[in-house]
Amino acid sequence: MRQVLEFNTRWAFSKETETRPEVMPNKWVWVNLPHTWNNIDGIDGGNDYYRGTCWYANEVDKTEWLPKADQYYLELRGANSSADVYVNGKHLAHHDGGYSTWRVNVTEEFKNSEKPFVVVSVDNSPNEIVYPQMADFTFYGGLYRDVNIICVNESHFDLDYYGAPGVKVTPTVKDADADVEVEVFTTNAKAGQTLTYTIKYPCGRVVETKTVDASETKVTFEMKNVHKWHGRKDPYLYTCEVTLNEGEEVLDNVITRFGVRTFRIDPNEGFYLNDEYYPLRGVSRHQDRWGKGNALSKEDHKEDMELIAEVGATTIRLAHYQHDQYFYDLCDEYGMVIWAEIPYISKHMPTGRENTISQMKELVAQNYNHPSIVVWGLSNEISMQGSTPDLLENHQILNDLCHEMDPTRLTTIACVSPTPIDDPYIRIPDVISYNHYFGWYGGEASQNGPWMDHFHEVNPEIAIGMSEYGCEALNWHTSNPTQGDYTEEYQAYYHEELIKQLFTRKYIWSTHVWNMFDFGADARAEGGENGQNHKGLVTMDRKYKKDSFYAYKAWLSDDPFVHLCGKRYVDRVEDVTKVTVYSNLPEVELFANGVSLGKKTAEDHFFYFDVPNAGTTELKAVAGEIEDCGTIRKVEVFNEAYRLKEKGAILNWFDVEMPEGYLSINDKISEIMKTEGGRMLFGQLMAGMMGQMGGKEGAGSMAEMAKGEGAQQMMGGFTVLRLASLIGGMANVEITKEQLLGLNAQLNKIPRA
Q1: What is the rounded distance in angstroms from the CA atom of residue 374 to the CA atom of residue 323?
Q2: What pLDDT was estimated at residue 690?
Q3: Which of 38, 283, 639, 656 fits as disulfide partner to 571, beta carbons 3.0 to 4.6 Å?
Q4: Which residues fall within 8 angstroms of residue 530, CB to CB, at 6 or more apart?
C-alpha cells in the first residue's frame, strides 16, 4: 500500500554555486525543509533581497529507509517560483509556479541506483512568464514547504494530474438528504482488481461501503438526513476513503474529508450558507513570519488559524496565491469560508497566459474537495494598467476553465480601487470585490460605504464585496490621530468607521480586512520600519494584537471580553484624555485609580470615556465579570518616542512650517484646490512629476489610475507631502526635500479659503 515519506532533513544548500553538482557537496550549508533564502533580506527593506537560482541536494539511502515499491514519486509542495529536478544527473522535470504541489516520477532513477542523488534548482528571478512579478509582497525563494517521496504499487491512484489527490467528492443536497458522487482516477488498474468506496462519520463509524470492479471509477452514495457543514457554527466533516484492491491485498488508498453544504451569493441579500443568511466578515492572510519568511511549520499555521478564529472571522481570503494544504484543512475544520486565488496580480503579462492557466488548474484540482472554499479568485488588481483586450481574453479563459473544472463554485476578482464600474472586466466573473483604501491612500474613511452604495445602485445585478481595506499602524501614538500618521490610534479609528459602514450593509457579500498579520514587503519604506506592510491587525511575529484586532472581536466574537485600548500610549500631555474600550458585552464601566468614571452602553461595541489626566492613573475597564487594565501618565512635553520618524523619508510632516490661517504641504489637496493660488501651485507640481515620470515604469499605471471613478475623491484626501512620497515611490520620481520645502514656502503665503 502507498507510503508517504518526509524527505525534509539534511539538504545541502548553496546560493553561490552556478552549476549543478555531480556528487553530493560537502562544503555547502546544511538545511532542513521548509527553507527559504529570503527569511532575513526579504523583510529588511531596500527591495534588494536575493532573487536568483539556488541549489538543494540530497541523497536517498535506499538501504536505510526507502521501502521497496513498484514506483516512486518525488512530491514538492512548494518551490518558489520555478524549479528543476535532477536525479543522478538526469533532468526529469521543470515547474513554473511557486505555490502549488507538483510531483515527479523518479522510479527508473531510484531503482537503478543504491543511493539516488537528488538535486533541485529553485529560481525566483524576475521574468515575464511566471506570476507574480509585480506585487506588494516579498517573493521568497526556496523549498519552503515539505518534500515527500511517495512509494506506490504499479497499480495506483493517479499522481500525475496537476498535483491532485486522485479522488474527487461532489455532494448534491436534496432537502435533508444528499447524493455524494465519488470519482477516482487510477493508473495501470488491471482486470480483476476492485475499488472499495467507504464514507465515514467523524468518529470513524462507517456510513456506507461499496465494492465495485476497478473500472467503475465513479459511484454515488445516497445519504439520508445528512449532517451539513455550516461554517463556524458547525464545521461537520465526513471522510471518504477509497482502496484499490487485488483479492485481499490493498494496493493503494486515498483518503479525503468533505463537507455537505449549499451556498449562494445574492446581489441584494449577501451570502447564504445552507439557505441561512451567513455574513462573511473576515480577513486576508499572507503566509509569512518574522525571521522565517514563508517557511512555516504546522504549528505556525495552527497559531494563525487560532488568532483568526479568536477575532471572530467567518471568512478568509487566502491571498495572493495557493496556500499550504494543511491550512486549507484547518479552514475546513474551523469552518472558515474561503476565497482561494492564483497570483495573477498587478501586472498583466501577455507572455504569462499559460502560467495563469496551469496555476489555476493546480489550484482547482488540488483543492476541489475542501468544503470551506466557495469562490475561485481569477486575479487581483490586474487592471492597474488598464483592461486590454488580451487581459480580458485571459480572464474569460480562466473563468471558463474554473466552471468547466468545477461547476459547483463561483468565480471572483479583486478590482483595484479606480477600476471604472462599467469596465467589461468586472462582468466576467460571477461575483466581484473591490480593494478600497479611502481614509488611508487618500480620500476619507467615510467614503467607503457610500461608494459601495453607488456601485450597488448602478449595478444592482452584480454581487459586490470589499476584498481589501486597511491602514498601517506601528508602535506610534497620538491623541489626535490623522490619516497617514501610522499610529495605532488612527488604525483603530479607521477600522471603527469601516466596521460600522460595511457590516451594516447586508448586500455586501463579503469583507476582508487587509491584513490579518503584518507581512514582508521588502520594497516598502513606510512607518519607520522598512521591509514590511504594517496593515495587520497583529504584528508579523504574532506577539502583539493591535487595538484594531479587538474592534473586530467586539463585533464578530461571541466569547465575552473587554479590551482597554492604548496600553502602549502611556505618556499624555492633555489634561483630559480620551480612552476607548472595546467589548462585545452591552455595558462597560471605567475606573481611574479605583474611582468609577461611570457606566456606558454602546450598540456599536465602542465605548468612549473622557479621563482626567494628572500624575499616574491606573485604569480598569469592567464588563460583566471581565476586566482589563492599563496606565496613563501626565507629562508636560509630548514623548517623542511616540512620534513617527521615517527611515529615508524625504521630509517628515512635523518638519514643515504651518502658519495659522495659511496653507502648507501638510494640507489635503481638497483644501488646497479651494484657492486659486493653491490650484496653480498644485498643477505645477503635478506637471513636474508627470514630466519626470515620462516613460518610466509605473507612469502608465499612475496615469491610468487617476482616470478611474473614485480616483479624484481619493486624490483629494492626500496631503501634498504624502502624495509626493507615494508617487515618488511608485514611479521612481526624484523629489527632493528642498523642492518640497520651497513649495511649502509658497503655500505658506496663500490664505485658507
Answers
A1: 15
A2: 60
A3: 639
A4: 44, 45, 46, 524, 647, 648
Rounded CA separation 594/597 (Å) = 9
Q: What is the pLDDT of residues 32-47, one digit of tens each?
A: 999 999 999 999 999 9
Q: What cell numbers appear for 659 in the block?
A: 502658519
Helix axes 389-405, 353-367, angle to 10 degrees: 20
Nearest Cα to 3, choosing from 77, 60, 70, 93? 70
Q: Does one domain contain both 326 and 447?
A: yes
Q: Rounded to an integer, what distance in angstroms lies between the CA atom of residue 523 and that of residue 367?
A: 32
DSSP 8-state assignment for residue 229 = P
**Contact between 348 and 704 (Cβ < 8 Å):** no
Q: What pLDDT shows up at residue 727? A: 63
Cβ proximity of 480 and 450 under 8 Å: no
Q: Look at residues 394, 391, 414 and name the one whose alpha carbon lies nearest to residue 511.
A: 414
Question: What's the pLDDT score for residue 697?
Answer: 38
Cell matching residue 237:
466533516
10-15 long-range Cβ contacts below 8 angstroms, 24+ apart: 10/58, 11/35, 11/56, 11/57, 11/58, 11/143, 12/56, 12/57, 12/58, 13/37, 13/54, 13/55, 13/56, 13/57, 14/54, 14/55, 15/50, 15/52, 15/54
The answer on 217 and 285 residing in a single domain is: no
Cβ pair 625, 585 in contact under 8 A: no
Range of the domain at 309: 267-510
Extract the C-alpha cell encoding 668: 489635503
Over residues 731-746, the mean pLDDT reads 76
With contact defined as beta carbons under 8 Å apart, do 269 and 300 qualify?
no
Q: What distance in Å separates the CA atoms of residue 173 and residue 150, rounded to the nearest whole number?
A: 35
- Contacts of 229 by beta carbon, 8 Å cutoff, 6+ apart: 235, 236, 237, 259, 260, 261, 332, 335, 371
Query: What is the rounded CA–CA span in Å between residue 91 and residue 109?
Result: 11
Coil, strand or helix: which one is 170? strand
Specify if 577 maps to a domain. yes
Q: Where in the sequence numbering do the catalytic residues fall?
A: 381
Closest CA to 378 of 357, 407, 351: 357
- Domain assignment present for residue 660? The answer is yes
**Chain centre distance of CA 420:** 24
Q: N- to C-terminal Cα distance for the chain? A: 80
User: Do 104 and 137 fall into the same domain?
Assistant: yes
8-state DSSP, 214: T
Query: For residues 215 and 111, what is the distance between their CA atoms, to the nearest angstrom?
Result: 30
217 with 283, same domain: the answer is: no
The structural domain count of the chain equals 5
Q: In what order do the strands lie in the sheet with 53-59?
A: 29-31, 11-14, 53-59, 117-123, 82-87, 90-96
Cβ atoms of 390 and 356 within 8 Å: the answer is no
How many CB atoms neighbour CB 585 within 10 A? Answer: 17
Give per-residue pLDDT as tens, 206-262.
999 999 999 999 999 999 999 999 999 999 999 999 999 999 999 999 999 999 999
Helices (H), 353-511: 353-367, 389-405, 448-458, 488-502
Location of C-alpha cell 460605504:
449
Same structural domain for residues 588 and 670? no
Residue 217, phi-psi category: left (phi > 0), alpha (psi -120 to 50), beta (remainder): alpha
Can you read off the three cell numbers belonging to residue 186?
487510477
- SS3 state at 242: strand
